[in-house]
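Operator note (shift B, R.M.): manual run for Transcriptional regulator MntR requested after the automated queue skipped it. Running by hand, logging everything below so the morning shift can see what happened. Input copied straight from the record, untouched. If output looks odd, do not overwrite the archive copy; leave it for review.
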Amino acid sequence: MYSLSEENYLKTIFDLSNGGTTPVSTSAIAAALDAKPPSVTEMIKKLTDKGLTVYEKYQGCLLTEQGRHLAVRIVRKHRLWEVFLVQNLGMGWDEVHSIAEQMEHIQSDALIEKLDEYLGFPKFDPHGEPIPDRNGNIARNNYEKLSLMNEGDSGVLRAVTCDTTDFLQYLDTENVCLGCIVKILKKYPHDSSLKIEINRTKSTNISQKTAELLLIERI
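Run finished. Output pasted below as returned.
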């Protein structure tokens, strides 16, 4: 058994490290968790002593195989609960993240497997992020950041990489949702903002920062 804090650190390191493949600095972890650097250093030492992370000064922190296994398990629970909250309770995609943060710490593997079956073995959460299967496998994709595409390019919005309430509510006001068709009408060189067309009808301007958070499948 691991504490809620330990599990939160493991999941955060997993998210920041591109699925556990690249080192993460303690400052990045501190920023993500809104924690003080000394507290992060202390927790990383604790996780390292438990064989869940490895840390090298000036290099950063990495998950061990055991640490990654636990992190993927937490991510799986989180994303399945998000699907349940949207699909079965009718909650909005902007409402479920903080609730799933609490539910991801339920320890029963049997419950999670039943939940997965009940939901029909979903492959993606409400934000388009892949759900690890029971063996820890995570589907890969060829989606591109909208910010890296060119004028005239178009594609289907498949995922968003930010699930804060404010950001998702902003997308709702602009009628930007998963599955919508996005076309770049104009890229403004002075600030890299974009004018986009949504579903071949409405057009709107978005910032480069927003475009970096939208993952597109080209069509």
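Quick read of the result: The longest strand covers residues 181-188. Residues 37 and 145 are 31 Å apart (CA to CA).
Leaving this for review. - R.M.
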